[in-house]
Amino acid sequence: MSPAPRVKKKRRLWITAYAPDILGGMDRPLVKVLCTAPSDLINRILTVKGTEFTRDFEDRGMNLYFRIIKVTPAGAQTTLIGHEYSREIISSKVRRRMSRVELITRLYTKDGNRVKVSVLAMTAHRCNYTHKKEIGRILENTLKEKAKDYGYEEFIYNLAIRKAWHNEMTKNANKIYPIREFLVYKSRAETVIVPPDEIEKAVEGEEEVEKRAETYVVRR
Question: Phi/psi at 119 (nearest 5 deg)?
């Protein structure tokens, strides 16, 4: 019997993914990602430590999430789609003899995308149900009003990295009951994804991409 023909293994490639323009663009590499074809990278989610961009000690427990939306010979382009704090950071905000106000809401940004946001507020002392309900309403209204003025990426950037509205939200909530701890602990753009029928179009110059990419080498 003749030996079975050898199946040629596909070449595996390292392609550099870059931050979105709002965080430095092609001047800010994020990570190198491995693939067998450039189209495999479209819609892949990358995780990067928050301190890479915020330099805030508390953000050591925060991850930022980026989705690859385009691949060109220059590299993979991403968009910021959310963030999340670790359980340890969230737990560190919870104290005895305080009341916990937790808000999980979905809102729509200026560009029509849906973003899910989770917020934790701890009052200085125990408060009643009416106070907690009113604080949650104020936080939700503030977020929805801000979302109307920004696209999803800029909204998440201001919310998670710049923390642009934290002071405003706590100040408004303090009118109801003093706030001791405050954390926007999670966000995610739920509708930002490249449709299956557009994935091929999201790869430009596939041959050139493969030519410029680094080959994955197995070391023995």
Answer: -130, 140
